[in-house]
Write a structure and sequence with these properties.
The protein has two domains: 4-118, Rossmann fold; 123-216, Alpha-Beta Plaits, CATH 3.30.70.1450. It has a six-stranded parallel β-sheet with strand order 3-2-1-4-5-6, with helices on both faces. A five-stranded antiparallel β-sheet has the order 7-8-11-9-10. The model has no long low-confidence stretch (mean pLDDT 95). The protein is elongated and about 65 Å long. The longest helix has 14 residues, at 78-91. The chain contains nine helices and eleven strands. It has helices at residues 12-23, 35-41, 56-61, 78-91, 103-111, 120-133, 163-166, 168-172, 207-216, and strands spanning 4-8, 27-32, 47-50, 69-72, 95-99, 116-118, 137-142, 147-153, 175-181, 184-187, 200-206.
């Protein structure tokens, strides 16, 4: 059976989630207060509905309870975002992901029980900044305030050596969880794996350790 999702708020962020979910073969109900926005998604989403989602009776009437995961992508109107999340929670939606506009918005969303709070502009800023200061860090995903996963391009200092030769975990505290090699990905590489040119290392560790590894090892 296909997974069923609902996305509330069809701005650039919500709209992109709708398109990608459809691409991934999921069923998606796209919801927005603006009927023009809804019209844009009539031919893209499985269903597109115009509704003010701050109104509990409206949410019930569109059957929002039946969706296993609902995304709230209302940005600018923080009040509407918070009220919508609260209503979804009251109705008993199992999983709610909400886009936060700023840190206090995020705090409120967590307090009222949002399961996942995302901060796309802030997170993308962090990723791009990391990419700007280092030519080797291709991508950066924060796991918490302290820990991250980074994609790091191997250079000639590493190529030809094994993980044991480089003694990466012992020296830098980071773990290589996978190596991307062209179209292939070696998950949990063995310690005797030799790094090749063009390899991309997927490294997990504290931000401090990752940066130490990136500066000292490469
Ligand atoms: P973007 O992702 O483009 O940056 P944004 O985060 O700036 O968008 P907005 O454009 O402010 O977000 O809002 C996203 C959508 O949420 C808009 O299309 C808006 O019509 C919709 N929206 C706002 N209030 C409600 C509401 N009460 N019920 C349903 N949809 C709403
Ligand atoms: P440790 O005592 O660090 O757990 P180990 O007993 O697991 O090491 P090996 O697996 O043989 O020993 O690895 C030897 C060394 O090679 C490790 O101490 C570490 O520095 C490095 N190493 C091996 N695999 C990885 C990896 N996936 N990521 C980072 N470093 C690794
Ligand atoms: Ca915006």
């Amino acid at each position: 059976m296909k997974k069923e999702f609902a996305v509330i708020g069809l701005g650039r962020f919500g709209g992109s989630i709708v398109r990608e979910l459809i691409e991934l073969d999921a069923d998606v109900m796209a919801i927005d207060i603006s009927s023009e926005r809804v019209d844009e998604y009539a031919h893209i989403a499985t269903q597109a509905v115009a509704a003010d989602t701050t109104d509990e009776s409206v949410l019930r009437s569109i059957g929002i309870r039946n969706f296993e995961h609902v995304v709230v992508a209302i940005g600018e109107n923080i009040q509407a975002s918070i009220l919508t999340t609260l209503m979804l929670k009251e109705i008993g939606v199992k999983k709610i992901t909400v886009k936060a506009q700023n840190d206090s918005h995020e705090k409120v969303l967590r307090k009222i029980g949002a399961d996942q709070v995302v901060h796309p502009e802030r997170d993308m800023g962090i990723r791009i900044a990391n990419n700007m200061v280092s030519n080797n860090i291709l991508d950066y995903l924060e796991l918490s305030d302290e820990y991250s996963i980074a994609e790091i391009k191997a250079n000639d200092k590493l190529v030809g050596s094994t993980l044991i030769d480089l003694d990466i975990r012992a020296k830098y505290g980071v773990n290589i969880v996978a190596i991307k090699r062209g179209k292939h990905i070696l998950v949990s590489p063995q310690a005797i794996e030799k790094i090749r040119l063009e390899d991309i290392l997927i490294v997990i560790g504290s931000d401090e350790e990752i940066h130490k590894f990136e500066k000292k090892a490469l």
